[in-house]
Inverse folding.
């Protein structure tokens, strides 16, 4: 439960960052700004692929860490301190990346840390949206059980697509829309088990909450992309730094409200283990990867990336934990694979 | 079990025919042969739609009759006599359609009943293929249970697509191939139940037999299309008449071998009921519809038609028999619907 909370937040791109990887991206972009030759396109495509693969890898290893931690037993650390550390680590990584850039390129209009109220005022909005969504999460369990909630979370895929179209005004081809519906159906199919049918008995309030949560989560993701892409030349590490500063602030408040006594009595790091440390590291890197996908690709790529990660996790779990794959999983995996193909085939035909 | 045997045969297009519907088609085709105006295309498209809808309707009502007959109890008629009557009825309907055509158009080279050995020699081949397939069907149950066999039968979809490409040398676009894979995955998903995972434990022999059966069934369907389309101007009723004559002959032999004693002692129509009669009528009309789809559309359309019929049957069964639809059914239905859309979208973009 505790682990899922962190997971949901990061998977949805609640907190966003960039890192040293960006240095390479920046170098390539230097060529891009000079001339519009195919080499630029190739470099962009390469960077997009690298960040997408990184996100896929990090998301699936994240899920595996969760299973591992569950098997190892319950951890008694406070979630708020872990979330705070994740934000702090992302901030630190952004600053480290910026320091290297300043050394090589000097401080410019695009990479200076100082900002204007006009630029920074929208940055806390995604964090607030996730906060509302996470609050709702406690109430939805009155209507749906945990496996049912996992099924309903696939509505995020549809809401992200719809809001991506409405808010960012980017068009998907009809084939790509079809692919997106398939992605949602395929992911849900892959997660089917003998008790999944219970989700059909969800009362109306449960459905409404699930849809509202999907819309909040989709809106937060799309809004983050809008913020980051609003100034394409602005260095991503600066954008991330400001996003994460608000993340740190929100989580600091959460520590004070929820876990002040525990931290005071047992210490900030009480209950931490190697797995906790690995998970914090993983969440920080995943957050950075989400942010880079937002900058150099988009929310659609992010959704595909995390969906494929879900399938990879299941396959890896067969070897690591002796899980059994169901027929439904294979069918869902086929549908998701076809969806990935159609997404790119649909793009080419535009 | 007995009913399924008839069903498999007809669903797979084991026996083929045409009927009075063709008169209208022929009338429209009269215009078509004069000029190649868009009106011709429209008429062709209309005829294709009518036969496809007829096949979908007949196939789904066929499945509903099967459920109804199962509920009503076991019927003690002999399957061979019922199959024989189906073939006879199709022959009679073909002759009746021909008689009307001869009256209006006179006897021509294309609609005369007499034939050459060269034309007719290939006609028994599909019947032989189905015979082999139906024999194999008894052996596969040593390795797979009945629900598992229903799941494995979806391999027919893939085999039909592959053989359609290889034998008829007709190309499908990449999008259409993707749609075809989705159709197979979607149909299987819609049929999932709590015991479906057992099919994954099927031994190698079972898989091999299932694949061989799928290939036989796909080959028979594609081969029938090849026969019927080899002479496009030849009247479909004549082609059907010869196909069904062999069907009658094969089934007459089957009566002699399997049910000679029962027929002699209890009579030809022993155990017949209203449902038996309705099913024979339905099978005859379905066979005719399959044949018309082969002539005016193709095996791909036939596969889509019977897949959509499977979904329709399930929905209608909710109202008729109080069946419950599963989440897997809804997901499968979404995937099949997207597949139908992609099949036509993929065609337009060629």
């Amino acid at each position: 439960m505790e682990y899922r909370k962190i997971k949901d937040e990061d998977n949805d791109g609640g907190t966003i960052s960039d890192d040293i990887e960006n240095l390479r991206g920046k170098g390539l972009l230097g060529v891009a700004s000079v001339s519009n030759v195919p080499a630029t396109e190739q470099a962009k495509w390469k960077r997009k692929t690298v960040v997408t693969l990184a996100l896929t890898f990090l998301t699936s290893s994240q899920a595996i860490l969760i299973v591992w931690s569950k098997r190892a037993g319950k951890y008694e650390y406070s979630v708020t301190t872990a979330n705070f550390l994740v934000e702090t680590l992302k901030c630190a990584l952004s600053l480290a990346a910026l320091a290297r850039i300043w050394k090589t390129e000097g401080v410019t209009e695009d990479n200076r840390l100082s900002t204007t109220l006009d630029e920074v005022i929208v940055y806390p909005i995604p964090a607030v949206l996730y906060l509302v969504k996470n609050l709702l999460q406690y109430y939805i369990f009155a209507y749906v059980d945990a496996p049912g909630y996992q099924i309903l979370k696939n509505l995020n895929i549809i809401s992200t697509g719809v809001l991506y179209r409405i808010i960012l005004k980017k068009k998907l081809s009809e084939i790509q829309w079809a692919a997106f519906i398939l992605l949602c159906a395929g992911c849900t199919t892959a997660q089917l088990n003998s008790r999944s049918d219970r989700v059909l008995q969800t009362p109306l309030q449960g459905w409404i909450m699930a849809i509202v949560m999907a819309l909040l989560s989709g809106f937060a993701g799309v809004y983050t992309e809008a913020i980051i892409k609003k100034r394409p030349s602005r260095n991503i590490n600066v954008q991330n730094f400001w996003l994460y500063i608000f993340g740190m602030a929100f989580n600091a408040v959460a520590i004070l409200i929820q876990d002040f006594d525990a931290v005071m009595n047992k210490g900030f790091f009480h209950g931490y283990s190697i797995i906790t440390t690995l998970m914090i590291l993983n969440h920080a890197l995943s957050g950075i990867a989400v942010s880079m996908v937002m900058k150099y690709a988009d929310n659609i790529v992010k959704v595909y990336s995390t969906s494929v990660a879900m399938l990879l996790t299941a396959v890896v779990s067969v070897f690591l934990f002796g899980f059994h794959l169901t027929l439904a999983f294979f069918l869902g995996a086929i549908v998701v694979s076809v969806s990935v193909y159609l997404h790119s085939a649909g793009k080419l035909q535009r």
